[in-house]
Amino acid sequence: MLQYLRPYRLMVLGTFLFAGLTTAFELVPAWLVKILIDEVIQGDQVQLLGWVFAGLVSAYVLRNLSSSLRIRLNNTLEQQVVHDLHVQVFGALQRLSISFFENRPTGEIMSRVLNDTEHMQRIFVDGLEGVITAGLTLIGIMGVLFWLNWKLALLALVPIPLLILGAMGFTKRVHGYYRDIRKGSAELNALLQDALAGIRETMGFNRQAYEQDRFGRKSDRCRQDTLKAMYLWSFYSPGMTLLGSLGGALVLWFGVGEALAKHLSVGELVMFVSYLALFYVPINQIHSVNHMLQHALAASERVFDILDAVPEVHDRPGATAPVHRLSGAVAFHDVGFHYRMDVPILKHISLSVRAGERVALVGPSGAGKSTTLKLIPRFYDVTTGAITIDGYDLRELPLSFLRSQIGLVQQEPFLFNGTVRENILYGNLSAGQEAMEAAARAARAHEFIAALPDGYDTWIGERGVKLSVGQRQRISIARVLLKDPPIVLFDEATSNIDTETEVKIREALNELTKGRTTIIIAHRLSTIQDVDRIVVVAQGRVVEDGTHDVLLDKGGVYAGLYEAQFQV
Ligand code: ATP
């Protein structure tokens, strides 16, 4: 954690300084009260009264001024560190591989980025500040107590070993509770995120009560976990205060004896008891800090899980990009792939696509077509064999270069919550209006965009919900056109769209694939009239490869799929 403070050394030092000053001024009033009793009242030195009063006022003013500066500095420090953490965790997420996201609920990851980092911040605010102020106060008061009367001071220390034992026991148990609390809170967040994303299904299936019940049960689990930590605190905190008070009573008992034996003046006894009261304040404060720290540590473990995660797919050391744009000859060399060790998905796939060639992948559902496509931009790395582009093994190219050469249109294209313009410009952030419109025209999208209420500046809602499926697909084609990569991977949408839209999408696709290496996953065989070659994948293997006519004549898997779709 300390590395996050390193860039802000001065602010940390300032916090220390003002915490120290606050503590020093805190100790002055009890000493002045002793002078009041011993010198002013019992010693009849009335002329000192004004000075003592002025001293008291100054001590109060300076204490609160230092405190104010300490709070200000500490909060600035805390906000800076939380900001750094947010940005770092987000950056770490951007570098992680697809598998990380496919194996975790989105809501859970969001909870780590936002809620867990918020809890970590407490280490910096309450934690740092609390430990510094309490530590300094303790040291200061201990010094004064020993200076006043070492025997009484030793007595005051009697409860300390018990307090330490109690703190150790508490820490051990509460840390586990806070782990459960953070985990439960993330699960609740994930459930909420899922429920909101699936709200249409919930309504369609009338499952509001079912969802309510699911959420209620998860929330109740969180309540129980939180209460466990709180109940433990309800024993621990008053228990520790009781021990401290017993120590104080012990000191008072012996202190009165000392005063009666004239080893101590009344003023000194009062001062001693005042400092003693102050002595247990920081001790209690340290207990509270420890409590809060356990929560913060449980949260930080979850944040560091992300920060420390190593991306499965990453650049090889020394990977360098060719100086030119690739021409786009894609080849699979005996490629094997599995998501889970025991379930091979692709087996011995060998396939070569010439630069500029258009190839369609067809095959039964679950055959491994989408998986084949995901391997080309290295969303996953092959398990065996290799994939090359223009002879370069994908793993030898820097990821950012490789992905700059590939345009991907997914089966369910994702549009960001923003305007049409922002979504198309995602393909090339520096493109101008003209280039953007040209891409939209080529994607057969300009017409419908112009008819939207605010044209290119129309807000299209989360995931583009305010657009039809066909419109979303054409916007996603436009943004790949704007990117202008040599290789295009197109996973055709399975949803039914009307014939007119289908014609437009086909036209857009023709524009997109002109002069580029294209691999299309075709669900509707009508889409693939214009391709050069058809590759049939079944059960993770290439089983047929040829033109439409050749494959139809062959009477194999493709002919079967064709007959099934067109019922010839
Ligand atoms: P469809 O035509 O229905 O889209 P497909 O041929 O594209 O099917 P893939 O999506 O490649 O098939 O899936 C191939 C197999 O891999 C399926 O059995 C699927 O269950 C499995 N699979 C896909 N994605 C994952 C994943 N992220 N983790 C584990 N298994 C997966």
Brief overview:
The protein is an alpha/beta fold.
Descriptive notes:
The protein is of the alpha/beta class. A 6-stranded mixed beta sheet has the order 6-7-8-3-9-10, with helices on both faces. Strands 2-1-4-5 form a 4-stranded antiparallel beta sheet, with helices on one face. A hairpin with a 2-residue loop joins β9 and β10 (541-546). The chain has helices at 9-41, 49-95, 98-102, 106-148, 150-156, 160-197, 199-204, 208-260, 266-308, 369-375, 399-404, 420-425, 433-442, 446-450, 469-483, 499-513, 548-554, 557-566, and strands at 330-340, 343-353, 358-362, 384-389, 392-393, 406-409, 487-491, 517-521, 533-538, 541-546. 63% of the residues lie in helices and 11% in strands. The chain is elongated. It binds adenosine-5'-triphosphate. Adenosine-5'-triphosphate binds at residues 102, 339, 345, 363, 365-371. The site of adenosine-5'-triphosphate (ATP) has 11 residues, from α10.
Strand order of the largest sheet: 6-7-8-3-9-10
| Structural class category | alpha/beta
The total count of helices amounts to: 18
Instruction: Please state the average pLDDT score.
Output: 88
Count of beta strands: 10
Percent strand equals: 5-15%
Shape: elongated
What is the ordering of alpha helices and beta strands?
Answer: HHHHHHHHHEEEHEEHEHHHHEHEEEHH
Radius of gyration: 35 Å
* Major sheet details: 6 strands, mixed
Segments where pLDDT lies below 50 for 5+ residues? Answer: none
For the terminal residues, how far apart are their CA atoms? 68 Å
Which ions, cofactors or small ligands are bound in this entry?
Answer: adenosine-5'-triphosphate
Helix fraction, binned, reads 55-70%
